[in-house]
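Hi, here's the filled form for the chain we discussed.

Project: internal
Contact: R.S.
Residues: 883
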Amino acid sequence: MAINLLSFIKNNLLKFSVFLLFVLSSNSYSQCAGEDSSVTICNIQDPANSNINLYNLLGGSPAAGGTWIDNSKPLEESIFNGFLNAQALRSSGIYTYTYVQDPSSCADNEATVTLRIGPYAGVPSPNVSTCNDVESFNLFLAFDGTKLAPQQNGTWRNSVTNALLPGNTINPKALGEGNYSYTYTIPALDSCPEQSATVFVTVFRKPLSGTPSNLLLCSNNDLTLYRNVNLNDLLSAEDAGGRWTDVSGTNQITSLADNRIDVESIYNTFGAGTYNFTYTVLSSNPICTNSQSTVQIVIEDPLDFTGSTLVVNSDICENLIPTATYNGILTKGPQAIPNGNYDVSYSISNGTTTNFITVNGNFVNGNFVFDIDEDKEYLLAVGNYTFTITNIVNTASRRACTNILGTISDILNINPLPRINNATVTIEPICKGLDALVEISGNTNLTNGNYRISYNLSGDNVAASQQTDFTVTNGVAQFSIPATLIPNVGVNSVLNFTNIMNLTSGCSNPVALSKAFTVKSLPNVAAVALNANNICLGQDVSVQLSGLGTLTNITVDYSLTDANTLANQNIILTVSAGNASFTIPASALVNTGNTTITLNSILDNSNGCSSVVLNKTKTFVVNSIPNNPAANSFSFCKNDVRTIANLTPSGAQYQWFDSVSSTTVLSASTVLVTGTYYVKEVNSTTTCESGRTAISVTINELDAVVLDTDGQNFCGLDNPTIQNLSDRVSANEELVWFDALENGNQLSANTALVEGKTYYAYNFSSTTNCYSDALEVTVSLSNCDVPDDFFIPDGFSPNGDQKNDVFRIKDIEFIYPDFTLEIYNRYGNLMFKGNRTKTEWDGRNSDYKIGVDGIAPNGVYFYVLHFNKGNKKPTQGRLYLNR
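And the returned structure, exactly as it came back:
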């Protein structure tokens, strides 16, 4: 390559020289190229080798201004300025560079510098590491990037096994965690020895976040079982100590240590969907990245096809089997079904065999249309074929749910042609004016359903091109020839069939079949009359018939109209001397008012013919029965002494009884007792009476309150109240106290008791609002023992200073309630006489007048105290009055 390039430059030097006029100095025409030289460079890392001036390496006396050519490069890149960065050469080896001058300057216008670049294996980095998830690691990355990069023409070997590597990469993932060393060797060149460099690579372990298993659930599963899902259970082979994050924003992960979620709550809050939770294990080293695995919680709602319909088109007659085509239309029910691609499975069953088919197609706006032509092989015979949808799956779903189908089916009918040529036809003799009943049975292929028959009449009665519809049940069909078509009596009327059609399938077939029948005459009933009397509701009505002539046994057809309706009732009667009677039961007369009985026809049972009876009616009245009186329960208090007059309803039309069967009417003054009474209403005009209504009466009686023995006795010193009195009685209901027997005031529990006052206690029921008989209690407050601190004062000072202004023996009215106190002056005059109602002496003479103002002077006075209790003797003493 370099020789060709050099030859090119020699041959085109004039062209280059023109070009070089613009880039080289003008004196280059007078200089030559010098001599070839060869230089070996072993110490490639020497900084001087980064900028080698090749001109200085030429031998001889080269002239400046020539052109340098790098013989290792293609023509368009080979010319350069003669300064070489040997460190930029990526391989050791021999490199040549040619210096070329203008050939017009000298005959030898070129010289070549040969450089032998020795090996350089580079400087390994002291810290080289990678992660065990890396499948390809370039060992050249293990060199110090701040130093000169190693040359690329060496070989790599495993430092331990000396195995030659196929290239310059290793697979840390295959090697696994550990420390590894590899030696890079570049062979010797010329005088430069080979160079080697050993790199040490540490493979760190990447954390394992595990292999996730997604949780697929249908919302109709029991989601309560998934209220506490441990996400770690959905991972395998993961490192412990990782943390979960809620990628989908369900707020289920609340802390770094949280690994549990409530799937039921997710569904209740956010509905169906895919919810992602990521498990992250942090790397324990700076080389490997964190590891993450994402678990998906997939919740799907089942599609509800309940109420969906399937229509398989179309039913055919058996003669169309060879040319028939079919398709199915599945239409959703009231629930929404998203558009999309679905697999729909269905079965075809004829009652004996069942075939299963699955079709794929699209639901569009609630409809799924599919072709059944490929399944015609199952539809080659007369029969009913049931198409049933067995499964519907949205192909885009994760199939967590079994969709709700209900029953979605349709029946495709391949209908037979109706055939009756070999049938048995029966027509019983009929009476003139009646329809003739025709029965078809026997050897036919008629299935249950509706048919249309075409026929003609001949003989005694003639009619053409008649049609009528009838129903076949269990191989038997009946229809009627209208009476208008057979007005003539005789024994030779002939029915001729011409065609039959199945109205359900539309299949029809010609018929060649006939049958003769008889028309009979009718009885005469022109003179018949009837009668019926008025009744009360719930009674039977007796109906009398007359004018029946010579008839002996008849069937009467009658109807009721107006207030009560009853159509075409038949009753068989024996006729005697032209008369007969029958009863209309009360069960047929449920409404009051005018009811009209009409005779419709009378059948002579001797020949089975009947005549219509015209204008034979009778109206009678069904009188109303008063409504049963309303049922009320009554509750009275015993002491109210209530009677029948206190019950409702009341009035002359009402009668009261003490039992359901009693005939004795109770008087208004009858005193009520607890029990059941019965009342009815009687209409004085119609004498119709109601049923009896049971009335429950309860007479509430409460036990009287019971006083404990001596419970009325208290000590006034204790300030007793109504509550203290209540504590001394027995009451089995709410206890209440009043201050009078009649029109008294109810007393509260803290009402103070008063000496000698009578109180009235009652049991009171808040349920019945009744009181018991009264308990009368007259209270005594003198039931006191003599206290230790009882004493008689020996003086007082009535000077108006509010201190010791009266002479009083404290609490004596409670301790000795019957006491009397006499106070005398030194002359024996009675100054004061006290008792329970007059306990204090204020120093004024209230019983003996002294002076103008009656004020007793200072001095000594004498008292006599009569206790009047037990056998306690009176006591006497003196006291001192000092104002």
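Let me know if anything looks off before we file it.
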